[in-house]
Amino acid sequence: MTAHTRRHARRIASSPLRGVYLPRSADGAAFATTTYGIPLLVLATTGSATLTGLAFALEWVPRLAAFTIAGTLVDRHGTTAVFRTACVLRAAVVLAGAVLLAIAHAGVPPVVTVMTLAPVTGVLTEVSYVAVETAGGEASRAAGAQAHRVQAVLLGIDQTAMLAGPLVSGLLLQHGGPTAMLSILAAFSLLAAALSARQPTEPRSATSRSGASGLLVGWATLRSLPALAWLVGGLVVSNIAIGLLQAAMPVIVVNRLGHSSAEAGLIWSAAAIASLLAITVARRAIDRWGLWPVGAVSAALAATATLAVSQADTYRTYLLLIAVVMAGEGGLTVVLRTLRSHLIPPDVFGSTLALTILLLLAPFPAAGLLVAVVPPAQLGHLLAAAALLQALGLAIALTRLRALPAAVSSPA
Q: HEC states along 274-312?
């Protein structure tokens, strides 16, 4: 670690609010609006469940491709430059989309615009996320034994953004139209870029790697960390179920149950409240009992509730059960991020982080494609199968983690 990097770490430790939390908050709002608002925009514009599922897949496939370069860019150019560039480009893209939708009669069909927004915003959102998550890892390392508390704050910021993002997207789409929703998304992106300008610019690595070799470095690092590898593997399986829930919910709530896009967004906002509460409880529980017990309880909660969701048939039941699912996911994510910040070496953090996120997000485009091809009446059976797979995957991962007590005990 160079003297400049050490000074940068001390600045992050002394001022995480200015250096990490504020830009993370604005980018989290843009992330949530993009992830949940774009599929709602597609459904509102096209009225097609198939295109909604396809848009969800198109939003996530390029996100995965972005990870071949995002981690390397962060390791090479630093978090600030990469984060600011991605946020400004995202704002420009969505503003262009808003203009095209407003003058749709002049040329570009609305379906082309909304289906293009999905992959382009997906790529830029993931690049900004890798940058801001890397900055969070630096803050966690600087916090030492309190790393899980820093990660709980960061995750709380993400969940707060998810609380507001889906609901605001649905309300704006319902009452202000696509232009209003996309304008707010652009505003969040520009705010994130402006706040990031306050962070010191830091060179992270002098090593020049291609995206492919950066992922190979990340893969080698992950294989050398069995505790992290098992947890990531379990969460990959779990995310198959979570991805199906996210992709199917607009179709279930709007088309099958006859509710509005705002009510579809409300489901995920309620889930964010439950997740925030779970994060607070998890932080205190890790202090007392360590990482493994918290992870085991969270996994059981998530898997049981996902299975129950597959049998739900009313809006209120969906709302309550998805809130429970995301509460369990919140606890698991605190455990994952704490392990990740402690175990990954700083000089390859960006590349390894990019790989772990790539693996965790891989199920989401597959989920979108499944929703696109499976008849809406069969979505309950699909969710039930995914819930059983989720329970099995998390059980295996947590069982293997228990054999590594030194790696999963609470840092102290």
A: HHHHHHHHHHHHHHHHCHHHHHHHHHHHHHHHHHHHCCC
DSSP code for 184? H
Residues near 59 by beta carbon (within 8 Å), at least 6 away in sequence: 34, 35, 38, 39, 118, 119, 121, 122, 365, 368
Secondary structure of residue 45 in the 3-state scheme: helix
Q: What is the pLDDT of residues 256-270, one digit of tens each?
A: 788 877 787 788 778
| CA dist., res. 266 & res. 165, Å (int) | 10
Over the stretch 212-249, which tens digit does the pLDDT of each residue have?
566 788 888 888 888 888 888 988 998 988 888 888 88
* Residue 98 parent element (H or E): helix 79-102
Of the candidates 325, 179, 110, 147, the residue with the CA atom closest to the CA atom of residue 238? 325
DSSP alpha helix (H) spans, 197-290:
211-223, 226-250, 261-289
Residue ranges of E strands in 162-256: none
pTM of the model: 0.66
Rounded-to-10 torsion of CA 347, 351, 352, 355: 180
Q: Which residues of 129-139 are buried (b: 16+ CB within 10 A; e: fewer)?
A: bbbbbbbbbbb
Q: How far apart are CA 12 and CA 409, in angstroms?
A: 26
Write the CA distances from 334 to 82, 276, 283, 294, 385, integer angstroms: 25, 11, 8, 9, 26
C-alpha–C-alpha distance, residues 341 and 287, integer Å: 17
